[in-house]
Give the backbone structure.
Amino acid sequence: MKKLFIMINIFIGYLFSDSLIVETVGILQLYTFTYDLWVKDTFAYVAADTGLIIINISNPANPYVVKIDRTHKKLRSIWIRDTLAYIGLRRRYFLVYNIKDPLSPYEIGRCSTGTAHYDIYIKGNLAYTAAGAGGLRIISISDPTNPVLVGANSDSSLIYLCGSGNYVYGVKQPHLLIYDVSDSSNPVIIASAYQVSMYFGPRIANWANYVAVTTMGYGPAGIDGGLYIYDVSNPYNPQLIYLSE
């Protein structure tokens, strides 16, 4: 179970002892802007403006920084699989790091796409990234030392994404977008749904035939953000089934 949540500038540990009881168990001031986090074993890997921050969380009540890799600045996204970390920068680069030793991470590969990488979703040997104004980028990671751009769709900007099967679900103000990525060389947008004008912190996740988007902003009724849940069992016609204000 993940017991951690990240906020701008502050790393906070939460304990979910019960679905209705959430306790703060640890706080760590990071003194930088932070954007994404991945927990693996007893370490948390944070994508931050100052670089890759690695935090020991073996004792959630007393998290502490064990490494800050400043090789690259303005990190925006991270996805970890096995001993490799896939990292997106604000500009240009998609990176691959070896993190077998959390105290000594190092870059083993990179791909220059000329775009941002605000979010990452990985399936098999492909990495899908939300490239901001650049839209969707698809990168082959079959050789982690030589990631290669294999597909793109620039029809719409993209902030955050997730995926399942042959589909990638993305957030673009003010829409939920659905991409058919069955042909990785030619991803296409097959549907969109209006949701909310997002000002802070939109995030997206999917399970079974549903996609959830959390955000802060103003929605169709002028309300202040909330949780949006869509039924995507028919990916060509997503339906909003739940809205929590």
User: Anything to note?
Assistant: Residues 56 and 103 are 10 Å apart (CA to CA). Confidence is low (pLDDT under 50) at residues 1-9.
